[in-house]
Amino acid sequence: MLGADQHPGSQPPHSRGVPRPEAHAVTLNRSISPDETVHSSMNSNAYGKPVPPKKDRREQARDSARLMREEQQKRDNRKRLFMRGGIGAGLLAVAAIVALVIVNSVGSAAAGPANMASDGILLTGDGSAIQATPTKALAADAKPIATDRTALTDTANIAVYVDYLCPFCGQFEATNGEQIASWVTAGNATLEFHPISILDSASAGSKYPTRAANAAACVANYQPDDFLAVNTALFASQPKENTTGLTDAELTSLVKSAGVTDKKVASCITDRTFASWLGAATKRALAGPLPDADIEKVSGTPTVLVNGVTYTGALDNPTTFSDFVAAQVAPAK
Question: Which pTM was predicted?
Answer without folding.
Answer: 0.69
